[in-house]
Amino acid sequence: MMMEKPDQPTSGGVPVTEDLVAELVAEAEAGFDVDALRRRGGRRPLGAAPAAVVPVRLDPDLRAALADRAESDRTTVSDVIRQALRAWLDVA
Questions:
Q1: What are phi and psi of 39, to 5 degrees?
Q2: For 36-60, what is each residue's pLDDT tens digit?
Q3: Are the C-beta atoms of residues 75 and 69 closer than 8 Å to each other?
Q4: Which of 27, 56, 72, 75 gives 79 a disulfide partner, CB atoms 3.0 to 4.6 angstroms apart?
Q5: Residue 9, phi then psi, degrees to nearest 5
Q6: Residue 76 to residue 45: CA distance in whole angstroms
Q7: Dihedral (CA of 8, 14, 18, 23) sign
Q8: CA-to-CA distance for 58 and 56, rounded, in angstroms?
């Protein structure tokens, strides 16, 4: 069986003890209410439908300029690309 090692915490900082393991086992054996489980985050939708990933090749100078713009705007590279495409294609 597992020995108690309070100097080896879980990622949440809680020591893994025999009591904790027994409590978690009992909880699992009793079953979980799936409807009560919290939905985890994930990416926010960008529109009405799931977004598609579109790979594109950039030369090093363009990639550096893109990264600089994203940093100066305090946003992501993807967001800068989306903004630029919307402006260039006249799409809202």
A1: -75, 130
A2: 777 666 777 777 777 888 999 999 9
A3: no
A4: 75
A5: -75, 165
A6: 16
A7: negative
A8: 7
CB 82 within 8 A of CB 69: no
Say if pTM beats, i.e. exceeds, 0.70. no
Q: Specify whether the CB–CB gap between 70 and 79 falls below 8 A.
A: yes
Three-class SS string for the chain? CCCCCCCCECCCCCECCHHHHHHHHHHHHHCCCHHHCCCCCCCCCCCCCCCCCCCCCCCHHHHHHHHHHHHHCCCCHHHHHHHHHHHHHCCC
